Amino acid sequence: IFLMQINEDYNYKNADHVISMLPYAKQHMISHGLLPEKFNYIPNGYEKEKRKVRSQIPKSLRVVLDKIKSKGNKIIGYAGYHSTQNALMCLIRAAEIAKGEKIHFILIGNGPEKGDLKEYVKNKSLDNVSFFPPVTKDIVQDVLSEFDYLYFGFVGSKIYEHGIAPNKLLDYLMSGKPILQSGRTPNNIVKDADVGESVEPDDPKKIYHSLKKIMEYDKDRLQEIRISSKTYVKKHHNFEVLAKRFISIISNG
Q1: Is 128 helix (H, G, I), strand (E, B) or coil?
Q2: How crowded is residue 194: how many other Cβ atoms within 10 Å of its Cβ?
Q3: Contact 129, 56 (CB under 8 A)
């Protein structure tokens, strides 16, 4: 760690430019030797998957989705890595609070915490939570379109003080679905784009109450989110715009 810090400081002091996907990393880098004018922020970009052959949603998932919807339930979904950093146990505990209500929780993906999550659901006899393996990138949007709401979470930690740059959130935004975010970060995209609800990290009760609030959105609010979420991505995460910004930075060195 000591040697890595020496290397980091050396690079900040000697680089012509530093480009970060974290908008609030500037002060950290300055404190380690970077001149303020050398810092540049460029976020992740989004590019729609171009498909020659259209894949299908897995049959096992399709059957469960149809069954849930036939009972009049709403679905809150998560698609991504299953680790402690993603605050999925908080989501499961919110599902425990919502047991018996017309809401079902679907988690898609793999990761080191998945076994613990499934064990918790089994021990608590939560029939409102379902797990599925990862889906291919080309059908992510198809799967997200089947959900009513989307969950994005991360635990309370100092590592998020400089901001976040999650690709998953861009996929969520392009789906046009309301997003429930659990976590604390200075660049709160869900709040900035006005596409859902944000709560403090590590609090299942707040997740549950915010989910109930989202479920009360009327048709006008849902339509507003469908439009504003995609507009936000096209405005702030368009690859052509970001590429031009990148080229401009490295051309002025």
Answers
A1: coil
A2: 12
A3: no
Q: Sorting pLDDT into bands at 50, 70 and 90, what band is 93?
A: very high
Check pLDDT > 90 for residue 49: no
Q: Which two tokens stand for residue 91?
A: 């989501």
pTM of this structure: 0.93
Let me know: does 24 contact 163? Beta carbons within 8 Å. Answer: yes
Q: If we measure between CA atoms, which residue out of 36, 170, 153 comes closest to residue 95?
A: 153
Per-residue pLDDT of 61-92, as tens digits, reads 999 999 999 999 999 999 999 999 999 999 99
Structure token pair of residue 182: 């659990």
The answer to whether 72 and 66 are in contact (CB under 8 A) is no
Residue 48's pLDDT band (boundaries 50, 70, 90)? confident
Q: What separation in angstroms does the CA of 230 have from each of 140, 191, 214, 237? A: 16, 14, 19, 10
Compute the distance between CA of residue 29 and CA of residue 84 in angstroms, rounded to an integer: 27
CA distance 129 to 92: 8
Token pair in block for residue 153: 């979470």
CA dist., res. 219 & res. 215, Å (int)? 11
d(CA 134, CA 161): 29
